[in-house]
Amino acid sequence: MKKCLKEIEEITEMQQWQKSTVYQIYPRSFQDSNDDGIGDIKGIISRLDYLHDLGIELIWITPMYVSPGNDNGYDIADYYQIDPIFGTMDNFEKLLKEAHKRDIKIIMDMVLNHTSNEHSWFKEAIKSKDNPYHDYYLFKDPVDGHEPNNWVSKFSGSAWEYVPSLNQYYLHLYDVTMPDLNWRNPELRQKIFEMLTFWANKGIDGFRLDVINNISKTKNMPDDTFETPTDDGRNFYTNGPHVHEYIHEMYRKVFGPNNFVTVGELSSTPISEAVKYTDPKREELSMAFTFHHVKVDYTNGKKWTLGHYKLTDLKSIISDWQIKMHKNNGWNALFWNNHDQPRAISRFLDDNKYRDESAKLLALVEFGLQGTPYIYQGEEIAMKNSYFTDIKQYKDHESINAYNDLLKKGTDKKTAIKILQQKSRENSRIPMQWDLSENYGFTKGMPWIKSFQKDNYSVKSVRSHSNNIFSFYQNLIKLRKTNKTLMEGSYKLLDPEDNSVYSYIRQKDDKRIMVIANFTEKEQKRTILNDCKLILGNYGNIRKTSNIVKLRPYEALMLEQ
Ligand code: NOJ
What we know:
Its EC number is 3.2.1.93. This protein is of the alpha/beta class. Helix content is about 30%, strand content about 15%. It has three domains: about 15-115 and about 185-475, Glycosidases (TIM Barrel, Alpha-Beta Barrel), CATH 3.20.20.80; about 120-170, Oligo-1,6-glucosidase, domain 2; about 490-560, Immunoglobulin-like. The protein starts with a helix and ends with a strand. 1-deoxynojirimycin binds near residues 74, 210 and 339.
């Protein structure tokens, strides 16, 4: 009996990654150590103490493998090598060692939906239809002299590219230089498992799996009907017929035996599917990145528009995921920012007059939720959008293609730039702001991407003030590690129709935590729990009379009853 109880305790014991916070590094823009203008591994090592001080326990680093860099590393040409722009394999091994010394785990980004067209597999594949590597990719014959179907690339234009020497097209859901892999081919899968094992043997702690829910395409890849504004072919490859099988196979061969932490990037995925990916019983992934909440300002589902969001919509999306994932044993990865998103502070709040309050509000709302929180580099010092004013300042293919598309459709240049300033992912790719010297202490050379704005927020300047954003994050990270209500409690949305204030309750046994956040610059009076005490607030105190609180502009409170 005793043994049985102990076993139950062990099963329900939370995993370390469920209590920890993850920090995302976009290495190119994080810290340059050799002044060539590109961030590198030695730069990351030099900042490990900073990250340890913040309190995070895992780092996710976006791809650093050999790549021509058309999509900043998401176009891999050699899975087995570190790109020299970031350093050497020795540097990488040292990074692992130094991180582990500080009890920080390293999660590598892994791109398995596509490779670069400079990968040796693809170079072989286009040699002839009989080449053994030809079937590693998705080639199709023309139909009536045209593309095999009407799917649209996520980077604009057709998703097919013609290869005259083969008289065939290949599928590329992303950039034309990023051909999609054919996961139906067992030999390809075997090669992938071997490669994942190579990294496991290096001693890494897990993978963030890029667009992993797109790897299994519907057999004959039919035309899309374009019935809804978001139709572009995605219905035939998102969460496709064999995707769970393939991921389970990776779990059995690599993730499980190595006790990996894995997070799947799952765009356009319903909750029912996200549950399947992350329910531990199914042995697939640890947690899910989903994107519905960061599409809340798309107009009719379209990204490249000037959009506005309603707080009630944002609350409803987040709440749906909170409740249904928890109820069905799924696990959320919580985030506002990453390298593909404009900065949330610029997008949803005020990155000017109430910048500190807004940054802390976002932190508090995220860390109050159920799931594993992520911080994207610079979020802990309230970095804001880059707001580029000229298309020449952009490097990102997705943004440049979108700009050209907008002009083709008749949008004037000024509006097109305004749309990019709101929606482009380049907004969050400018160098990390370490201090206020030239190029913000990121490099002494010419940065690969420049920040053209004068900003007085940096790690050094922010941390020189008391009660700063960085220390607010430190408090939240600490709290998450120990507070059972935050880790395991249920979630309930209060006042779904309130378009100014977001409040919710987390509950575990008889303990309740209330998070209440004013998303406007107007003062708001609201009712809070009786007899509760303040755990954390972005103004440092609370203004209340009995259970009525007067929320100041962008005020956010975490209260315990
Ligand atoms: C998602 C990555 O986060 C993004 O940066 C990349 O462009 C696409 N996947 C394609 O790999």
